[in-house]
Amino acid sequence: AEQQALQQVRKQFPILDQQANNSPLVYLDNAATTQKPQRVIDSLNRYYTMTNSNVHRASHTLSAEATLQFEQARETLAQFINAGHSKEVIWTRGTTESINLIAHSWGSTLRPGDEIILSTLEHHANIVPWQLLAQRTGAVINVIPLQDNGDLDLAAYKRLLSTKTRLVAVTHVSNAIGTINPVKQIIALAHAAGALALIDGAQALPHFNVDVTDLDADFYVFSAHKLYAPTGIGVLYAKQALLESMPPWQAGGEMIAKVSFTETTFNDLPFKFEAGTPNISGAIGFATAIKWLQAQDRRLLEQHETHLFNLALDGCSQIKGWQRIGSPEKSVSLLSFTLAGQHQQDIGYILDQQGIAVRTGHHCAMPLMQALSLAGTTRASFAFYNTRDEVNRLVEALDRISHAQQVSIPTHQPQTDDD
Ligand code: PMP
């Protein structure tokens, strides 16, 4: 019965049912972006067929309907992460824009010598905005190192915290190696030192529920497209008092209350941070994905993901020269690895020839790769719509690659930096 339920879930993702390079597509790049269920695709179609109109302005019926759906979507997202109020949910383009908003708005209050703590496990999106901010303000960045087992060194973190620390910005789950960080503890320690905490939840919410109130996160950011929803939309959650105290970032329509050429007053939350026409269909599609997800048996889906992960781990562990990179425990269903004597780009190319989509390279985490003394890894990231058969195909393909004497690929695929 469980297998049937899982098959039913998979059937709702039409893109999975196709050939790639004359083999059935095996999509194992879910950490880069997930596929969308038909329900979400339909909601975009329905919005543009029936409702399209600008929000929050016109006096007409369509606009009222679009506004209603857009604001209901915000409500759905607020409930999904257990925010105190939907005002605390700001729509952005995604995780990257959420972090940039914080770095520009909240960050403008930093003074020379103020300290920001990041971790070695961060995605570039949670590094570069802080570097640019440090250059603008004279703030200083400190980095939590890794322990030998690849987990964050919490003892070192405690030593980095001081009265100078203004912000601790850490990822909930590593996109490169899958580690789940103890963010509740990290946040509590930040607060004890008088600092705020920002959690990058891009890779967490796709795998488990998150309660921002229970975590006591000051900022929590994530992207829709990794959560079975459209690209171009995401969320900045922040505590209301904090958002009230922050200056606006982008300026224009929607974010104002009153404008004259001498003075402008700003709109209330959440609109103060949403300049211009927002991604209306994206927000509606996002809420549709969340409602779809909530209607599924999430316990079964999580169990299945864990099962796929263990199957892949067991299978790959038998392969000569295969090495897993990442935390021994506490990981989401994502397997980062190297294969002795084989370059990851070649591995990615050969897998693609067999229809198997994985990600290779530094995974937008170059400082982590440096800390691990690796040029990159191959990453297979699983979603609940993947099957045991697909995992077996991956393991068999990797086993064949491990036996190949020497692989020579004439031209490398261009290395992109998109996740
Ligand atoms: N942080 C993490 C941990 C991520 O995995 C990603 C996307 N790979 C990002 C930030 C950036 O997200 P986006 O590109 O959707 O803005």
UniProtKB/TrEMBL annotation:
Its EC number is 2.8.1.7. GO terms for molecular function: cysteine desulfurase activity. Keywords: Pyridoxal phosphate, Transferase. Its cofactor is pyridoxal 5'-phosphate. Residues 26-394 form the Aminotransferase class V domain. It catalyses: (sulfur carrier)-H + L-cysteine = (sulfur carrier)-SH + L-alanine. Belongs to the class-V pyridoxal-phosphate-dependent aminotransferase family. Csd subfamily. This is cysteine desulfurase. It comes from Neptuniibacter pectenicola. The chain holds residues 7 to 425 of 565 of the full protein.
